[in-house]
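@channel sequence for tomorrow's demo:
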Amino acid sequence: MSERYEYVPHRLLHRHVRDIASGAEGELMAVVNENVSDSDAREHWIELAHIRGASGREFTTAAGNIEPAERQDVKGA
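structure tokens (generated this afternoon):
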């Protein structure tokens, strides 16, 4: 079996992004081409975006679901 994942360059890496599927926002930490198959016979690769939200917790979404987002600054803080 080949490697299970590989890092993919992305124009929004380390920028503030929005997951259009959920509306969640955060910093794009990595895009990974990952083999999600459960057998050696048939590989299935997908590109996952790893996003770190404001809480510090990371979540994933399909790389095609991310778009640039403007930071919302908290006024009066």
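heads up for whoever presents: Strands lie at 5-7, 16-19, 25-35, 45-52, 58-62, 66-68.
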